[in-house]
Write a structure and sequence with these properties.
By secondary structure, this protein is α/β, with parallel strands linked by helices. It has eight helices and 15 strands. Helix content is 25%, strand content 22%. Strand 2 and strand 3 form a beta hairpin.
Length: 315
């Protein structure tokens, strides 16, 4: 695929952010890890990329030309020549470091024999999405996790309220009402989860299965706010936490203890303590947990004073 993206950084964003994925047979994926990591480091790229036998997935950020170089490097592989990506911008560095990980799946659903290169739902362009989900004959399903749906969802969509994507297949099997209407419309952040979820639905015998091409990010980028059926912000897996229409950065912050997105009022709760707890996780953590998080938070503050990065694992 010819890359026609304008790589001129947006005036109010100093970091270009590229979300990408591509399903393809990639048996020698392990040998690609080191060259890809070296190329990312050489181009001052941060973020996370997952590679597996079934393809590549991830989000990276860096200078506009560096992103263009890495995308070209990935597309130089014949398996990924048709890789597509979505760009947005961040005013601050959205990731602390660069990681390239080897995985069994590039998005973990936990169902054997699901191959989106062989069977998948019908793609729906962002401009046609409103008409589909407004059709009374359509059931609209959000395939994301509960902490993602907490800050935004399409009007009228069903929220499975799942903790991880692994729970989605059982949720479908336990909801016979999904057969009550002829059309199923599914969506996720960038499209990758719907590649597997729609393949799964087709495998179960659902006939008319559709998914939003490019995901919520493409919709927010292209559909004007005044025409939008999206309510809230879209959770993103970097330091921006959420983005709105036009992919503008939102005002959420993350609880460093549970990774739940927090509104401004959450941070004024007596249950909120920076890096230690928030109203969403306080009751599920022990005092021993919180003391451990306090020590971690202290080390992070000391490292910041010294001008160092503290990369302690998530609690």
């Amino acid at each position: 695929m010819t890359d026609t993206t304008d790589h001129t950084a947006k005036a109010d964003g100093s970091f270009t952010v590229a979300a990408l994925y591509h399903f393809a047979a990639f048996p020698d994926y392990k040998s690609f890890r080191e060259p890809l990591l070296e190329a990312c480091r050489a181009n001052d790229i941060c973020g996370s990329l997952l590679i597996a036998r079934e393809g590549i997935n991830g989000t990276i950020a860096g200078p506009a030309q560096g992103i263009a170089n890495i995308l070209a490097f990935i597309r130089s592989r014949p398996e990924f020549r048709n890789l597509e990506h979505k760009e947005s911008y961040a005013s601050k560095k959205p990731f602390l470091r660069m990681k390239v990980r080897l995985k069994k799946e590039i998005v973990t659903m936990g169902v054997e024999d699901i191959d989106p290169t062989q069977i998948v739902g019908t793609y729906v362009e962002a401009k046609d999405w409103n008409a589909l989900i407004s059709d009374p004959e359509t059931i609209v399903i959000d395939t994301r996790n509960d902490y993602e749906t907490a800050i935004g969802i399409f009007k009228g969509a069903v929220d499975p309220n799942i903790k991880t994507f692994r729970e989605f297949p059982d949720w479908v099997r336990n909801n016979p009402g999904l057969h009550n209407k002829p059309k199923i419309a599914m969506y996720c952040t960038g499209g990758i989860r719907c590649e597997k979820s729609t393949a799964f639905m087709k495998q179960l015998g659902f006939d008319e299965v559709y998914h939003l091409k490019g995901g919520i990010l493409k919709y927010l980028e292209t559909v004007p706010a005044e025409e939008s059926l999206w309510e809230g912000d879209c959770f993103v897996f970097d330091e921006r936490v959420g983005v709105g229409h036009g992919l503008e950065e939102g005002e959420y912050k993350l609880c460093r203890a549970c990774r739940f997105p927090l509104k401004a009022e959450d941070t004024t709760s007596p249950l909120f303590e920076e890096g230690v707890s928030c109203p969403h996780c306080y009751e599920t953590r022990t005092e021993e947990d919180r003391e451990r998080f306090r020590q971690r938070q202290l080390q992070m503050k000391l490292a910041k004073k010294r001008g160092e990065k503290h990369l302690a694992p998530q609690g």
